[in-house]
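To whoever picks this up:

The parser on our side crashed when reading a file containing two proteins. I've narrowed it down to the boundary between the first structure block and the second sequence. Both blocks are reproduced below exactly, byte for byte. First block:
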Amino acid sequence: MKKPIRHAIEKHEKWYLGDGVYGDGPDFHWDYYNSYVISPLLIETLRTCHSMGMRADKSLSDAISRGERYAVITEHLISPEGTFPVIGRSSVYRIAMLQQLEYTIFRNNRLPAPLHPGATRAAITSVIRNMMDAPGIFDEAGWLNAGVVGRQTAARDWYNYTGALYMCTMGLTHLGIPPSDPFWTTPATAWTQQRIWSGDESVSQQVFK
C-alpha cells in the first residue's frame, strides 16, 4: 500500500515549480487546482504518512510551507471589489478557489504572514457573497447552474456535471475554524488589494515579495 503513496509523493515533488505552485502533472496549467485539489490533499496525505510511521517529515514541512505561500498569493488575488481572476479549468467550482487559504488557517492554526485575520475574513466573505448571491446561480429545481457568476453554462467543461459543481463547498472550509479564533474575533479591515489601490503607504514590503 505504501509504494503507490510514495510514488505519488515523489511525482508531486518533481512537479513543484516554485513560489507555492505545483504543476498538475508534468505540464503547467494556469488554474486553481493547487487550491482545491493539490495542496490540501497532499498535506493531508503527508500527515497520514507521518502518523503511519513513514518517512515524510521533510516532505510534510515543505508542503505546508508551500501551501502557506499559495494561501498568501490567493489572498493577494482578491480584488478591492471582492472578485478574483477567473481563469483555467473547472472555474464552475467557483469559491473552491479559496480552499487552500481557508485550509491553512483551519489546519495549521495560524495565518501566514503578512495576512491579517480580520482582513482575510472580510476578503473571503466578499468573494463568497459576490459569487454565490449572483442571480441565476440556481436552476428552477434549486440546483447549482454550471457557470461562474450566475448562469454561464458555456463555462462547463466536458467532465463537469451538476454534482461536480458542489465542489464549491470546499470554499467553506473556514467554517471549521473555532469561533474563538482571531480569524472570527478580529474586526474586519481592508485586505491587501484594497490597501494597495487606496494608496495606503503602510503596506508592508512583504506584500510585494
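<<boundary where parser fails>>
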Amino acid sequence: MKYKRILLKISGEALQNTAKGLNHDPDILANVADQFKQMLDQGAEIAVVVGGGNIFRGLAGAGKGTDRTTGDFMGMLATVINALALQSALENAGIHTRVMTAINMPAVAEPFIRRKAIRHLEKGRVVIFGAGTGNPYFTTDSAAALRASEIGADVLMKATKVDGVYTADPVTDPSATRFDQISYQDAIARQLKVMDAAAFSLCMENDIPIVVFNFFKQNGMVEVFNGDNSGTLVTH
C-alpha cells in the first residue's frame, strides 16, 4: 500500500440513484463496503467525510429564500443522515465504524474529539465524520481538509464522477484535458472547481496530497490506496 491513513471525501450525490429514486443506493453502499474491506485487510486506517447534497444543499436553499446560515445547518444535518446510512451499510458488511459529528447529537453519534478519532482509527474502525466543520459558510471539502489535517492523514482521496482534474469540465467541454499531477498553487490559480480554495490551501499548508479519482470506477479507491496510476495527484 502507498498510503496507510486515508481520508475519503465523498459527496452525497455519489450515494444516490436518481433513476431508481433512491437517496441511498444499496448497491453503491455495498461497493464502498467491499473496497473498504480490501483496504482494511491490508492495514489501512480509513476516515470518511460525507456530503449532504443528495438531501439538502445550503447554497441551493439560500437561493430559494432560506437564510444562508440556516440553510448551511440544514445541510450539515443532511450529512449526518448520509453518515448513518454509510455506517449501517459498513456494519452490515462486518466493518466496525464510528460516526463522529461536529454538532453534538449524542443519541446518534459521538462528538468529534481528535484524540478519540485517532484511537478509533488505530483500532481498525472506520470513522465517519458528519456535520461538516460545525460552522456555516464552510463546505464539506473544507471539512475534509480540516479533518485530514487533524488526524494526520497520509492522503485526502476526493471521490468524483470523473477520473481526475481537468482543464475544464469534461462533461461539457470535449476539448478538456486531464492532469496526471498538478500543484496546489496551480489548482488554486486556475480556479479548478474540484475542491474549493480553502480546502486546497489547508492541504497545502499541512502537506497533505490530494488524489482526485473516479468514484464509479471498479476498485477505484483500492487503486489509489495502492498507488496505482488512477486519478490526478495534487501536491507541492
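After patching the parser it read the second block fine. Residues 5-235 form a domain with the Carbamate kinase fold (CATH 3.40.1160.10). The longest strand covers residues 5-10.
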